[in-house]
């Protein structure tokens, strides 16, 4: 009680969007103590950002310096866990180094830019026995966890048909040409690896797997770049065959003018259906074969243990994106604290997304691209 | 002023769903006078149904009798237009006979069960110069017409990405095994031709073409039968390449437990997007690149002429399915009355769906089935 | 079977809104045969309007002529029922004359402009034994009937708190000064009697009584005219004490910019609550003390007999304002046809709103005005 | 940069709802450092709760001990600001003591249980020149601030008609009889002062004033206790006359089964209207006289400075109750830090709710009670 994870951060300096979200998520429950950081690849900016966060002595000018110095501190003083929120193409090198040195890591998605790197990281984490979380933050929403629990409990029966969408509109114009920071690195193939498929396609794929518990067996896909001159994809649609005979249609796009962050999933089974929409995250529509159309809301006493454990406020008091993100951080904190006694973390029994999920996400990107190139159904395992 | 179409009906007797809808649609504006009918393939039921409608002397026991008798009446007394609302597999023979005899026809969708029949009907109608309408009733909704007009006027710019869905749940169980009338003929391959693809896939395809004005160039598809023992498809998903480089994802299903009649379309262009949902048909969401998120409602003074002409009530006074259906009937009535002077109807300039649209719908069914069988992208014109 | 009411109409000529709605409502089910009309107080307009409806020989130039001539026809040829859709201040004289002559009447709301007239009409109808319906059309919505049936069956337990709103925005500016026809007579005290309280306040009051089954015991009210120079009220709010200890807040306004026809009711009882909104009329929200939040939809098999009898289409096929209006007409038709055998109509057991409801509506207007003037709680029966 | 408020807390120990919310709100932006607390009126529970929060040496057993000890620390070590989240009836004594000792305070609402206490606190805060914030947290929502800014800027023109509702259902049964902690003190007249009027009526009243900028001139009200045996009110409805001739209807209830935390406001002016709903807090409906119906969303570039300053995440990434609460805390932090130089805080120019708002809230409770007792319109200033 009252224990806090000694925590560090790589990336996420001034002007970065997701770094601030990670810090807010970590702050919410008081389970993390930010003790050091290498907030930028630019040493001056790194130091200035650190001061802004009140890190006077352990604000490092780069991740290598941070690794060296922290490693040299006595175990009870060095940070235990490090969040890596740099551009995608650098995740592998940084995460591998921290994992090998025995630090727990939280890596933003997509975990890496190649399947080889992803396999390597998953293996390294397994070998080291450390926590290697991947922040598929949408799986932190209580009602997403409720949906997953209900599907497992048979509330919709055998799954037949799934629809998953992640539609955004912010890249409908060539924002990268205007120097917008988020757009620039996310549409640079050397930094981002893929475009929309990597950035949001992996969220959709993880949500699909997390809620249904099914795996992808084959993919048929259409991948597009609608904005002239863009160097990565900005739109894709895929038909999926899932384990157990279920079918899914998964569509993602970043050129849907007017869409903000419309991630949603609808699962239709033999006995019922469940629908969840990220932009109204506190609600779940549950409909049954007998005609019942029910709205479940976060905080209801009738919900399952997974949702209850991820809930902070009573019904009618909206929780949002940061709270969901914080649920991932909270679960990771408990896993990290449990390792203080020397225990190894078992990724296969994790309640939060790990490097195994990260690997599947990167594989998904690669399979969709292969299917789109070939124009035929493409097996997950070739 | 005050003129009414002399009108007859084939099919649609007691217990039929869609026949009663056609009659309500025709009654709404007082433009049709139902004078004769052959309401069932069962002579006794036909007669009894006719009496129930107040047709004492021209309630025929079959469509052939109706054709013969009406043909023998003097031109100003015989019916001018005949609605054909029998099971799909009989459309071709009946419609062909009435067309060849110079009657105008209104045919329920899908127009026929084979492409050959569809071509034949379209050619016959063209030859005869009669009105040959196909009741793609959803295109009668004022806000669907508004959407089409806005797309034509450039409100969303060049179309990039379209999503069309038609999801129902009423066939999630093997209703046909229980003898439910609607389910029985719609899942009988010999009556219906195809399953969900024909029944609602053609609605989705027509809506897509009607609103965007684009044609389908290639199809990639996944067609499924989820209910064990069912003899037709009950679910499909298709990726489409449209003229002008646009892409569409079209999904249909009749096994989505909890869905009622969820037909919807979202059109994303370079400059904006439009969304319409059949279950809230009086509204259109219009979103622009500059951030404006606007809800257009039927009856607003700012709407275009197409929507205005299809509107009966002020904003806030809901119109529904029958009113939309009635708009098709109203447009057909004007076309039929215009032919009284001897003019031929030009299908290519029609404001309502015609046999040309009916043909495209049947072709769509055939192309989706072919694409699903082959597992590869299939051109519209092979 | 196949019987139709011989029907006539007073008012509702060209340019009138509600007359066309009455005709569409009567046409929908084929239960009315419009045989005569006096469509305008202007004889030329009356005749021209009649021709437009195909009434060549019984298009009268005024209601007195219509009454005289129809009365002189043999019983089996004259009309049986007459709809009165003239401005409010003329309802009493016309309705009284037709009732006394033994015709059934359908009167638009508010039934009259004074309580004395309303009492007189109700007494006359009772004496004559004819049907005297008042078209509180919103009570024709299937889900409103479902709500009423559920409240009667105890689904929400004893009613505690009710909220009723009828908010419109079309009179937010001085439309009457621009000569808009609807606005002109509705804001003329000599025609309309009251302003918003009469026009829509009576709808709200009837909906409250129809759904809850409770009567108003006392009123406290605030009545306003917001548009400068307007001669009637355009806004009101009232607190109500209902039988059984329940409380209601009833607000109406015609100056709510952006509101279209937002009539809604929420009934909160000891065990549950029900919410209905006219602009999405096919749905009912039902929430229970145990946390269940259920959406009931028109057409569901689980609904009660009242909703089922008022339903034409399956779930997911929207019904609207005209269909609801048509349900009143349908019920009246059955009552009128039942009187052909000479039976008297019993207003106290009617399934549709009658002159008794019309009387309560007019009394409501008068009580709200009295309460607003006095500034204190005002008993229903003083 | 990097400065944090030295912060303490009175109340909010284990099992308290609102205390945890205050801590999460304070944590979110890293602007507060919780250094001491007196978390319970029970000394053992206070100490245990403090340990749970990691407060090992400054976890006090009561607020008097906390005040004495902190006062004795050197200025740069003692806390600067104290949050008071105890039951309502204790607010005055505690807040007065801390204010008089020069501490800044954040007081939960309602600020006190009598108007006299409220006046006294406001005067004390003014005298001391300290920050005395009252956590009307709903005014921290970005879209509430946007609404207020739009109304000030004339987006809806002169305000005519306002509807404010705060409907909950959690007290629909006699929860206090079951020993539920929240219910017990909130329905105890000696602790809570009033029932629903104090608990949520003050939120509704503040929202009304905050958004419209208008003051209440007169009240007419109906106050009820629906649950048998309850010792405080649990429902109320009020008609309000506002400055400038506007009218409001304000309804609150805690017995609306199925309602969760339905606080909402609709402002109708001469030129447009604005609607905001707490359960979908990121959206604002804006409708104009010319027919435009627009949805504004948090994070849009087109919003004003007030909303932008209160926004953490881009559009489509939901923010909720804690983020809104945190906005109050953030504004207070800036005010507290600004006082470090010795400046006095000017409550009259505050961006967050102060003791002046707290006073109006308590006055509102008293006026509503008086109006309900008398049954007549009651002036704000008698």
Overview of the molecule:
Four copies of one chain form a homotetramer. In chain A, 37% of the residues lie in helices and 22% in strands. Chain A is built from twelve helices and 14 strands. The first copy, chain A, has a nine-stranded mixed sheet. In chain A, helix 5 (115-128) runs antiparallel to helix 12. Chain A has helices spanning 17-28, 43-52, 63-72, 88-100, 115-128, 142-152, 181-186, 189-192, 196-212, 305-309, 321-338, 355-374; strands at residues 5-10, 32-38, 81-84, 104-107, 132-134, 159-167, 216-224, 235-242, 247-253, 262-269, 272-277, 283-288, 293-297, 378-379. By secondary structure, chain A is of the alpha/beta class. In chain A, helix 1 (17-28) links the parallel strand 1 and strand 2. Chain A folds into two domains: 5-138 and 327-353, 3-Layer(aba) Sandwich (Rossmann fold), CATH 3.40.50.720; 140-314 and 362-374, Dihydrodipicolinate Reductase, domain 2 (2-Layer Sandwich). The longest helix of chain A has 20 residues, at 355-374. Chain A is globular, with a radius of gyration of 20 Å. Chains in contact: A-B, A-C, A-D, B-C, B-D, C-D.
